[in-house]
Amino acid sequence: MNIDFLREFTELAKRLNYTETARFLNMSQPTLSKHMNQFERELKFTLFEREGNSLRLTNAGAALLPYAYQVTDADNDLNEKILELRKSPPPRLSISGLTDEGPSTEVLGYLISLLKEKHGANFLEVKSRFNRDLREMLGSKEVDLVFDPVPKDEIGRESYLEMTQIAELRLIALMDKNNPLAQTGSVSLAELKKTPFLKYEGIYLSRSWGYIEQACQDHGFTPRTRSCHCANMLDLFAKCTNLGPEVIIIGCHCADRVPSSIRAFCKVVDLTDDNASIPLYLVYRKDNENPLLKEILEVLHSTDGPPLKFTL
């Protein structure tokens, strides 16, 4: 249906005069008459009829008129909203550094819950990272936030960046099922002092190794390690089929992702130490004036600790 024809119909219904209506609409009277004839053919009923020199609405035209006003009013509102959005687009918050891991989903859900009542659920935009350095993305202002287990000293060297902790991820150990330590179901880091660690590299969680090493050092030892390259999580889990005396330290969210076929070779063992965890941060530019970022940071800074804690 032609919205212009509908609008012309409502104006003609007000005046019941083709000449006056055409003048108001800044068009010729023959053009208005042609449009009304086309509109009536489309509707398959008559809108107006003449009585001598007078024009009046038919019963069908009178019945249609209130609905025509609703449509034209809605069209006016739509156009006003379009102009408003062009002048002042709704705020958006972009975030990157996320993977398909469970904590990432929880973080996204938490951020949405903070502002949903005020801004709806579509204010958050997730952008792919493709293993790019977070300083590159924030430095170019491509994103507002990067979610990352980045070491504090790494951000401390960048004067324009700031970080705030949003989550804590508990660590677990993956051990060969025949390892004596695996029989207890839980161990302390101190009990792993003489156990060789498999240090995985090349996947997202490799950035967390600094926290694992620091936790061990807090217990008086530097872990003995053997480095191995892992292209993805399944590649890492494949190492679990032949761990021998070695142990893999990893985030607790990965426990339920260990394939059942691999569980025949290894066991998930909880770490009992309070510091056996990885802090997860939101990193952002200090000069970012995005109002949504400011609202989220106000909430996070008002909490005593990280609002999200992931445990086994």
Key terms:
3 domains, 312 residues, D-Maltodextrin-Binding Protein, domain 2, single chain, 38% helix, two-stranded antiparallel sheet, 13 strands, alpha/beta, Arc Repressor Mutant, subunit A
Describe the protein's architecture and organization.
This protein is of the alpha/beta class and 312 residues long. The protein has 3 domains: 3-87, Arc Repressor Mutant, subunit A (Orthogonal Bundle); 93-165 and 278-310, 3-Layer(aba) Sandwich (D-Maltodextrin-Binding Protein, domain 2), CATH 3.40.190; 170-277, Periplasmic binding protein-like II (D-Maltodextrin-Binding Protein, domain 2, 3-Layer(aba) Sandwich). It is 38% helix and 22% strand. It is built from 10 helices and 13 strands. The strands form 3 sheets. Strands 3, 4, 5, 6, 7, 10, 11, 12 and 13 form a 9-stranded mixed β-sheet that branches. The protein has a two-stranded antiparallel ribbon with strand order 1-2. Helix 8 links the parallel strand 8 and strand 9 (225-229). The radius of gyration is 33 Å and the shape is elongated. The two termini are 59 Å apart. The model has no long low-confidence stretch (mean pLDDT 90).
